[in-house]
UniProtKB/TrEMBL annotation:
This is Exocyst complex component 3-like protein. The gene is Exoc3l1. Its main location: cytoplasm. Interacts with EXOC2, EXOC4 and EXOC5; may be part of the exocyst. It is found in: Cytoplasmic vesicle, Secretory vesicle. Belongs to the SEC6 family. GO terms for cellular component: exocyst; transport vesicle. One of its GO terms (biological process) is exocyst localization. As part of the exocyst, may play a role in regulated exocytosis of insulin granules. It comes from Turnix velox. InterPro entries: EXOC3/Sec6, EXOC3/Sec6_C. It comes from the Eukaryota.
Length: 686
């Protein structure tokens, strides 16, 4: 009961609080209603205050306009005065008035902009339209001054300094307006500092690099480059010593001018290279760009250092352009070298037909001016190229070797042509052999001089293709000499074998006289070519002697004739061998040993022993054929078919292989074909 009583008391207290709260809420609602009616009563009063605010704003604007009226009324007068100042080159005063009027215009435009009065802005711009003319007039004078700055800083730097001060003022105004960023007046930013650089760079380019060099060859290009060199050094000295003092440090005017000259030169050289320069022009350009430009004569001039440094600006000519220009130069030099070499060869060819023998050196060796002329020409071009770059020197060196190889080919053709003329008439050229010998000496001189052309003195290796060309030319001259000897030998060789020859004649003595005459000529050739000629001559004599024996002109009819033939072979071979030994050719180097060996086959008395003798013969001379042996056996005149068959069968059972060091002799000898048996007797045609 007591618990229920306590709950009822709590509920009664809560109801009392709710009743009290309801009364307070009702009181607040009444107060709010009263306030609402009070606000409605004073709304008309607020409308009156709004109209007053508008009037106040208009009054403020009117007051501002009234304050500006004197300035606005004087605008046209100020325009005229500023224009007069500009015409009188009072640039600082003119610029001050110009800034004042721009400030006035910009203030008015800013206010109108903030109030969104765009129509009024148009009116203001029209009213201040003269500012555009003043700006243009001032700018024109400024850029004229900047364009002539290099001259002015030497003669009268005041104008240039004035121009720089005006540009600096405008630059500060531009920076301030850009920072505010809420309103940008018309014509801003002017960017006169950037324009200053452009005009200065344009003036430099226009003064020294206006178009390409019209006279791009020889002295004209050299004068043009020398003028550029002199003017650029002079201008940079003016910039370094005078102009730097007339502009703020942050302009970096010396660096700007240096870079401008560098870039302008790069473009200018490219323009010149587009023209068809001769080799001298290309060389001048490469030398100037790669050597002179960085030398103490130009950008490394003592008056410019250390402030001027072009090393950070990159090369004046890119590596690709240098390589391209070097290749053009090599092409031009190649054409020139070809022309000079061709003229040299033509002169040499004419000298071969002279009535006089070729010149001799202090040792009595025949020679001509050809190798000296050719090597001097090639060496001079290689040395000239070394003044530019190692790569150009290497290119010219490679070209020189190619041209020398081609020249040797044309020399061989000239030798062949001379040989053909000589075949038509052996009296022409009069000293045919002597000039062939001089050519051999010339080839030796060329061969020994080639290594001196290489840029690296330690590198003495001659390219294989050039060495082969030298060998081919030497072989051609040697071949023509041997052909001449052969023509003189053949009439003598036609006389053997014969009965008259067997019985004794002066045939071999005549051959020795002929050989001795040629050997005397060969003495005018340097070693080892002289020895080579003797060896080839001895081989030719031996092969012609053996060839004559194998022409089936004679067959021994008796033992007496075989003995006589054997003795004649011994005497002839001994006489010839002694001759060549006396000329300096060792016995082991001679091919006449084959005649001695053949003599053993002839002198053998028992034909049944021929198999062993022939086996020894073919072992010593592995290039001998069955036809050769058959012909030699026929020459004996006493060999039966059975013995011959046995000998040939023995040869078939013992095939021979030519050693690498073997010098063939029989392989060059052709044996006449045997006559075929025919059943009908020879007789006259019916």
């Amino acid at each position: 009961q007591s618990t229920v009583q306590s709950y009822l008391e709590g509920v009664s207290a809560g109801l009392e609080q709710l009743r009290s709260a309801a009364q307070e809420v009702q009181s607040v609602c009444q107060d709010l209603g009263a306030a609402r009616w009070a606000l409605l009563d004073i709304a008309e009063t607020f409308q009156g205050l709004q109209q007053m605010r508008v009037l106040v704003a208009e009054h403020v604007q009117l007051a501002s306009v009234v304050q500006l009226l004197p300035q606005l009324f004087s605008v046209q007068e100020v325009f005229s005065h500023t224009l007069q100042l500009l015409h009188g080159q009072h640039l600082l005063e003119a610029h001050a008035e110009l800034m004042m009027m721009e400030h006035l215009r910009d203030d008015i435009l800013c206010q109108l902009h903030l109030r969104g009065l765009s129509n009024a802005q148009t009116t203001v711009l029209a009213y201040f339209g003269g500012l555009q003319e003043l700006n243009e007039s001032l700018a024109k004078q400024l850029w004229d001054i900047v364009a002539n700055s290099l001259r002015l800083v030497r003669e009268d730097p005041v104008l240039f300094v004035t121009a720089v001060r005006i540009i600096e003022r405008e630059e500060k105004i531009d920076d301030t307006l850009l920072l505010e960023a809420n309103f940008l007046p018309p014509g801003r930013p002017k960017g006169w500092k950037q324009k200053f650089y452009q005009v200065l760079q344009g003036a430099i380019t226009g003064t020294h690099f206006n178009g390409t060099c019209r006279d791009a060859e020889g002295p004209g290009l050299a004068r043009h480059l020398a003028t550029l060199q002199k003017n650029i050094v002079s201008d940079l000295c003016v910039v370094k010593d005078l102009m730097v003092q007339c502009v703020p440090a942050h302009y970096n005017i010396l660096s700007v001018c240096t870079e401008t000259y560098h870039q302008a030169l790069t473009s200018h050289l490219q323009d010149i290279l587009r023209e068809d320069l001769d080799k001298q022009g290309l060389f001048l350009l490469l030398e100037w760009a790669l050597r002179v430009y960085h030398s103490p004569e130009m950008m490394g001039h003592p008056d410019l250092l250390p402030e001027v440094d072009v090393s950070a600006l990159g090369p004046l000519m890119s590596p690709e352009l240098v390589d391209q220009t070097e290749r053009k130069y090599v092409v031009k030099v190649k054409a020139s070298v070809f022309e000079w070499m061709q003229k040299t060869l033509e002169v040499e060819f004419k000298e071969w037909f002279r009535e006089e023998e070729p010149e001799t050196d202090h040792q009595g060796f025949f020679q001509s001016a050809l190798p000296v002329t050719v090597m001097k020409m090639l060496n001079e071009n290689i040395q000239v190229a070394s003044w530019i770059t190692d790569s150009l020197q290497q290119k010219v060196y490679n070209m020189a070797l190619e041209e020398l190889e081609a020249f040797l080919g044309r020399l061989r053709e000239a030798l062949v042509q001379c040989g053909k003329e000589h075949q038509k008439d052996r009296t022409l050229p009069k000293h045919y052999v002597s000039y062939l010998l001089a050519t051999l000496n010339n080839i030796l001189t060329l061969s020994s001089s080639i290594s001196s052309l290489h840029p690296d003195n330690t590198h003495r290796e001659v390219p294989a293709s050039l060495r082969a060309a030298l060998d081919r030319t030497e072989k051609k001259a040697t071949q023509l000499l041997l052909e001449e000897l052969l023509l003189d030998l053949q009439p003598l060789c036609l006389q053997l074998p014969s009965r008259k020859w067997l019985s004794g004649s002066q045939l071999v003595s005549s051959m020795c006289e002929l050989i001795d005459k040629y050997a005397e000529d060969f003495s005018h050739v340097r070693r080892p070519t002289c020895t080579l000629l003797l060896r080839e001559s001895e081989l030719l004599v031996a092969s012609q002697y053996l060839r004559a024996l194998m022409q089936k002109k004679m067959v021994c009819k008796s033992e007496e004739e075989r003995v006589q033939l054997s003795q004649r072979l011994l005497q002839d071979a001994t006489q010839l061998q002694e001759l060549f030994c006396g000329l300096g050719l060792e016995q082991g180097q001679q091919s006449l040993e084959a005649v001695f060996a053949l003599r053993e086959l002839i002198s053998l008395k028992d034909p049944s022993l021929l198999s062993l003798e022939v086996l020894g013969f073919v072992t010593k001379y592995p290039d001998v054929s069955d036809e050769h042996i058959s012909t030699l056996l026929e020459l004996r005149g006493d060999v039966s078919k059975e013995v011959r068959h046995m000998v040939l069968e023995m040869m078939a059972q013992h095939p021979q292989v030519l050693p690498e060091s073997y010098r063939p002799i029989f392989s060059t000898i052709l044996v006449p074909a045997p006559e075929l048996p025919f059943c009908i007797r020879k007789g006259k045609c019916a």
